[in-house]
From TrEMBL:
Pfam families from the UniProt entry: HAMP, HATPase_c, His_kinase
Bilayer topology annotation: Multi-pass membrane protein
InterPro entries for the chain: Bact_2-comp_sensor_kinase, HAMP_dom, HATPase_C_sf, HATPase_dom, Sig_transdc_His_kin_internal
Name of the featured protein: Sensor histidine kinase
Predominant localisation class: membrane
GO molecular function ontology, one term from the record: kinase activity
Length: 587
């Protein structure tokens, strides 16, 4: 095994070239393979879903047409005449009605070729096409069809079965109807037998390429006789009912044994039957075999090319480093006149040039460190000052949503305008300093939004003692944290009666101006007040952050005091120095 620590930097760089190149190709290839697989899978799912939904529409249209044909049959004169005699108990015209209805049955079967046979059971007798051979050994009233219509008491679709009413044992799907009549006629039922094979063709059954399409009833049982082993496995897995109950249509991945299948389904509109389609995921993704081999070949090719070119690259890249080594050796021999020379301008050359200026620039480097620390502190405070409490935004949007649901459009519009204005004033075009006027507008928008979110919880009052104070500069988002603490912490145990007072006053003699925020909330004990300046209390802006910002912008000339008695509210006072902003104050 190679000890990496004993290798030269040149060899390490070669290995790094190889590792980075191969890893990049493998990662890119892996992501490409996953993305391509997902795209192919999604496209296959969507394409199959469109086909399944189209099949559902076709089947619905065909079954609706079948219902229309039967409605036409039931309002025909021969049928109505037969019902009239049945209601009157007149059985003398049975054979006449049989002949007349035979023509109607023939017309219905010609109109809809999907119909195999029609059977009408009445107290007068049975009616059916004269061309059909009735199975005299089977009584309708002793058949499962009669049990279904009695149990469900409505128009019933019966799944595929052998037709016992007529000879031939043909497999059919049956529709059992009660007649349409102005007067109720008892014990009259119409059975329409549909060719099961014709319905299977209508569904668009496929059994090639690892995919199958079939029809299930509301209990996730096959509507027709299924011979496909894949369909049998899927149905017998007992998981189809869960997919059917998810909704009228959809698609998902489905694990069966050790193989993954893509399942699509769409429910019919006329009945609770659902068209299902299942296809092998491996079949869908078989084209990705080409992608796999391409990744392998590209990786091998990249490895060979990297080995060939890495030697020249390492020699070129390490040339400045060798020069720096020679200079350092001379410096170790107390030759402080040694200097690094190079025509390159890359990072290694810059290291050599900076080594030349090390002794001369110690003080400059110290100042740069201080500046870097200051910039870092400014960046941190900017990041802290730009935070927005996600709970406030969530509560505001949630309130707007419910007010819209309650048709309170005017209030919702005002909240949206206030929220937009709040962000606009808070961002302040990227400037950290704003005016007191804009800052007060910002806190008003925030308080207005909170009054909508916490209705009747509190009221507020803002007073500016001298108009010229409105033009004073102030760091942005200084006031919102104070009123936010009052609402979230001071009024946390209150339902109404809260009050927030904000007073801004200026003292030209003392060359300072003050912001005083007071609430009548639960207050704090002395220990909490002492720790508040150094710890974050809950969510949102921390008082310690405000203190840090005041010190950054005003130094020791600004101050903040907190007064509170438990159960009597909190008073926060911020003192900010005047810097010649007022005409009566000298800079």
């Amino acid at each position: 095994m190679i000890d990496i620590n004993r290798l030269s930097f040149r060899n390490k760089l070669k290995i790094a070239f190889l590792v980075v190149t191969i890893l990049s190709i493998l990662i890119t290839g892996g992501f490409s393979y996953v993305i391509t697989a997902n795209i192919l899978e999604n496209n296959a799912m969507k394409l199959t879903q469109d086909t399944v939904e189209k099949s559902a529409e076709i089947v619905d249209e065909k079954l609706n047409k079948l219902m229309l044909v039967m409605m036409t049959l039931m309002i025909s004169n021969p049928f109505k005449g037969m019902l009239k005699d049945v209601a009157a108990g007149n059985n003398s015209q049975y054979f006449t009605h049989m002949t007349n209805l035979d023509n109607v049955f023939s017309q219905a079967r010609m109109t809809e070729p999907l119909i195999h046979s029609i059977f009408v059971s009445t107290p007068m007798g049975e009616f059916y096409p004269l061309s059909m051979n009735r199975n005299r050994q089977s009584s309708f009233f002793e058949s499962p069809l009669y049990e279904r219509i009695l149990r469900e008491q409505k128009n019933v679709w019966v799944e595929g079965h052998e037709d016992k009413l007529f000879l031939g044992n043909n497999r059919v799907v049956s529709l059992i109807l009660e007649p349409i009549s102005e007067d109720y006629v008892k014990d009259v039922y119409i059975v329409v037998n549909i060719r099961e094979e014709g319905l299977r063709r209508l569904v668009g059954l496929e059994s090639n390429g690892g995919s199958s399409r079939f029809l299930l009833n509301g209990a996730a049982e096959p509507v027709g006789l299924e011979t496909d082993p894949l369909v049998k496995q899927v149905v017998n897995s007992g998981q189809m009912e869960a997919f059917i109950q998810k909704g009228p249509k959809g698609y998902a991945s489905y694990e069966l044994g050790n193989e993954t299948y893509l399942l699509n389904y769409a429910r019919l509109g006329i009945t609770d039957w659902t068209i299902m389609s299942v296809q092998s995921k491996d079949h869908v993704l078989q084209d990705l075999i080409y992608v796999k081999w391409m990744i392998v070949f590209i990786t091998i090719g990249a490895f060979i090319v990297t080995v060939l070119v890495s030697g020249g690259f390492t020699r070129y890249l390490l040339k400045p480093l060798h020069g720096i080594q020679e200079v350092m050796k001379r410096v170790e021999g107390n030759d402080l006149t040694a200097r690094f020379e190079s025509r390159n301008k890359d990072e290694l050359a810059q290291v050599g040039f900076r080594f030349n200026r090390t002794l001369e620039q110690i003080v400059v480097l110290i100042e740069e460190v201080k500046l870097a620390e200051t910039n870092k502190r400014v960046a941190e405070i900017k990041a802290l000052s730009a935070q927005m409490d996600p709970h406030f935004l969530y509560n505001t949007l949630n309130t707007i949503y419910w007010k819209l649901k309650l048709k309170q459009v005017d209030q919702s519009q005002k909240m949206v305008v206030s929220l937009s204005r709040l962000f606009q004033l808070g961002l302040n075009k990227g400037n950290e300093i704003t005016t007191l006027d804009k800052e007060l507008q910002h806190v008003r928008q925030y308080l207005e939004l909170q009054t909508y979110c916490y209705e009747h919880l509190f009221e507020y009052d803002i007073q500016v003692r001298q108009p010229w104070l409105l033009g004073l500069p102030i760091p942005r988002i200084m006031l919102q944290p104070l009123v936010e603490n009052s609402i979230l912490h001071g009024f946390s145990s209150m339902e109404t009666g809260g009050r927030i007072s904000m007073e801004i006053d200026g003292d030209t003699d003392m060359e300072q101006w003050t912001i005083r925020v007071q609430d009548n909330g639960v207050g704090m004990d002395e220990a909490t007040v002492r720790s508040l300046r150094w710890q974050e209390q809950g969510h949102g802006y921390a008082i310690s952050n405000l203190v840090s910002r005041l010190q950054l912008y005003y130094g020791d000339k600004a101050d903040m005091t907190i007064e509170s008695v438990l159960g009597q509210g909190v008073i926060v006072t911020i003192s900010i120095p005047l810097k010649g902003e007022h005409p009566d104050v000298q800079p």
